[in-house]
Amino acid sequence: MRGKLYGVGLGPGDPELMTLRAHRLIAGAGVVAYPTLAGAQSFARSIAADAIAPGAREIVMDVPMTTARAPAQAAYDKGAKEIAGVLEQGEDVICLCEGDPFFYGSFMYLFARLSARFEIEVVPGVTSIAACAARAGRPLVARNERLTVLPGPLPEDELRRRIEGAEAVAIMKVGRHLAKIRGVIEDLGLTGGAVYVERASLPEEVVLPLAEAPERAPYFSMILLTKGADPWL
Amino acid sequence: MRGKLYGVGLGPGDPELMTLRAHRLIAGAGVVAYPTLAGAQSFARSIAADAIAPGAREIVMDVPMTTARAPAQAAYDKGAKEIAGVLEQGEDVICLCEGDPFFYGSFMYLFARLSARFEIEVVPGVTSIAACAARAGRPLVARNERLTVLPGPLPEDELRRRIEGAEAVAIMKVGRHLAKIRGVIEDLGLTGGAVYVERASLPEEVVLPLAEAPERAPYFSMILLTKGADPWL
Description:
The structure is a homodimer of 233-residue chains.
Chain A: E1 5-9, H1 20-27, E2 31-37, H2 43-48, E3 57-63, H3 69-88, E4 93-97, H4 107-114, E5 120-123, H5 128-136, E6 147-151, H6 156-164, E7 168-172, H7 178-187, E8 194-198, E9 206-209, E10 221-225
Helix pairs in contact in A: 3-4, 6-7
């Protein structure tokens, strides 16, 4: 009997925002797996830390810091092989995923490598978007509004075009793209309706009108944008 | 000392997909509030049922079944007044919200009415989108992809235009709009990349390729659409 792989969403950072199911699976896990970036501490592991049983085996997939695809793919190839070895021994593996596993999550690389051979369950988690809206006190979308989610690294002209054609917008992964994104929003005259959120739900969280955002943003930052008057009154 | 209002996301339906924080707040609540639609059972209350303390007071906001805005607004006016009365007595109120309170959630109507006068905390929840993707085994978005969320009631030509210009698409609130939406996706030649999900995470869940979806869909149904080849390999 083979083991089962779980891709478990942990939510945006506050350990209390993990689901009951995520907590139960992690607390009962004999083997957990998670990626790290160039040897840095794993954010996912830090969210789950208090739930991980003492003595659980930890499979670490260290992804090198580069925009090239091959080295990251090699890291996931290696991790998938190690996880497959555990599953073949009949033991389950709980993969720790910040946010939601299928929303810009690296779990999909393991899913792509292992789903044909092993049973996989994805446990959805609270996304950073929902957390940012909650912390900013800003409804994301109401009634028949449309929501567009854009990654900050998109080229400037595409960002501009997509924001122009959109209604409610969430811009993810702001980080070093902040100045570019801010310029586009300013050009479109939308700065007044934009809020900047950094590390939502964590103690070091920042929530500010975009006009007052800092010069430098971490990777885990977001801009929420609504057009026109409050639509939910 | 005034009480605090909590808008608590309960996730998509499986009670295990509520967050630890949602569970803790509900279990400790002396007063819970939730909307019902034309006297029907409250879905939010059914998700939270096992967590609600015996003897908790329940404030029910019954919203009439009509597309007119005024009767619904009157129901939220009345509910907000009753909640305000409790908060003014110094007691907290936990408002139960299916999914996430700020993602197409009716909690924003209470938020709009009460946030100027009372402290409000929104506890984000797992959205139906994340749950549908998890249950369908389909990553929503990877890397620098864009996600467009569309409500099914949009007019046919707008749906067509928005889907044409989009990459990954989630169409919410399919319900009685299924035939129209299916027609648009078929016309665009995208049926092969579309999956239909009904009541994700509940025992009566349905997950099917769109081509095999039933003729009639409940309100809590969704279509997920990706274009081109698997982008996450």
